[in-house]
Specification:
Residues 39-119 form the SNRNP25 ubiquitin-like domain. Helices cover 13% and strands 27% of the residues. By secondary structure, the chain is of the alpha+beta class.
């Protein structure tokens, strides 16, 4: 059986002009710097179906949204429309600020997030609603 050669991890030293030793290269093994496993999350769509994604544990809401977009790269979707009318939610809290860290919301590996409706930036509560509109969601009433 062949033995693998072990890598030399001892610091490399050299002599200065005055004869003292200096360290010129010392490999560092910082285990806290190893890449973390991504969070595996399930996203529940409005129609009740779901899909799985993976996102960096230290990611932001914006990273989460981009991961959702990438999951549907094979489809032609107006994401401007989607994010203008819907947002992701975790345990009833809407994830509205793109700069928020995912961990801020307590999201952990295996959690489920869902798409929910939200008031878009262009929403004007002063606007008069027609008689056929539902005042709660601005959608036509079902007949």
């Amino acid at each position: 059986m062949e033995e693998e050669e072990e890598e030399d991890v001892s610091p490399k030293v050299s002599l200065k002009n005055n004869g003292s030793f200096i360290c010129v290269a010392a490999p560092l093994f910082l285990y806290d710097k190893l890449p973390e496993e991504p969070l595996k999350l399930t996203i529940l769509k409005l129609d009740g179906s779901s899909f799985d994604i993976e996102v960096a544990r230290n990611g932001r809401v914006e990273d989460l949204k981009w991961t959702v977009i990438e999951a549907f790269s094979h489809c032609k979707i107006s994401w401007l429309h989607v994010w203008g009318h819907f947002c992701l939610s975790y345990c009833g809290t809407k994830l509205l600020s793109d700069d928020d860290l995912i961990g801020t919301y307590g999201i952990n590996d295996g959690n489920e997030l869902s798409f929910v409706r939200h008031v878009s930036v262009g929403y004007n509560p002063e606007k008069t609603q027609s008689e056929g509109e539902d005042h709660q969601f601005n959608e036509p009433k079902a007949i």
